Amino acid sequence: MAHEPTQPPELHDFGGDGPVVHLAHANGFTPGTYRPLAETLIHCYHVIGLPSRPLWADSRPESAPDWHPLADDLIQGLDGLGRQGIVGVGHSMGGVLTLWAAVRRPDLFRVVVLIDPVILPPVWLWVVRLLHWLGCRRQLPLVRGALRRRRTWPSRRACYEHYSGKPLFAAWPDASLWAYVEAGTRERADGQVELVYPPEWEAHIFATAPTDIWRAVPKLRVPALVIRGECSATFRPESQARMERLLPQARFVVIPGAGHLLPMERPAETGAVVRDFLDVFNSS
Known about the structure:
The protein is of the alpha/beta class. It has helices spanning 35-39, 68-80, 93-104, 122-134, 141-147, 156-164, 174-184, 199-207, 237-246, 262-265, 267-283; strands spanning 12-15, 20-24, 46-49, 86-91, 109-115, 152-153, 185-187, 193-195, 224-229, 251-255. It is built from 11 helices and 10 strands.
């Protein structure tokens, strides 16, 4: 029997006044990583983020054979706030969880914003299904890379310097990288810092990327904005085109030159797109 986590960590509250905006984070990141994006919204909105199951202290990957339990966690967490009409913003994995939550419980949301969600082209998903069937999903480069990830550093400064030299973080402004380091590490008894997000969980999430996501897309009835990074290798142009056909009432925006991690690469631009959409939506 899968071990069921019992106690999620506390809500991450970015502050602000106004309607509630919930930020659902990507795999491998914590809510606090999105602080620069949240700071572009808190003048008009109260921004919060619920940590997903990989960040729960007693959670184990076998408790979630796929991503659906994480969407159930999100629904339960939002229900616990006692609020409806939430602005649901989700990035990457968080975009998928927000989409599923909005389909299952549209009463919770006023509008959703999906930022480069993990919605792969149908042809790619056939390959993913084949790898699952062959039992090869643990050999995927993203999975193997997550398991090899460095976990400890002498200090947060050392962690920052380590990541600042990596190509993945080359386009990140200092504020985003420091937000990632500060929120994504914790101090140990020996004075070192270690990753908060377990690499085993990160690998498991990569290995169980959803192959049934397209079933949910046409069921979305909540007003939606979908943002894609022009250079993203995750949310591809063909996926956007298919979503546009399935969701003709949704708004789609591409941020030029941005990649999959656009909320960290371009927090000001991403926040401006979200605010513009919400302003139009609120005035309509």
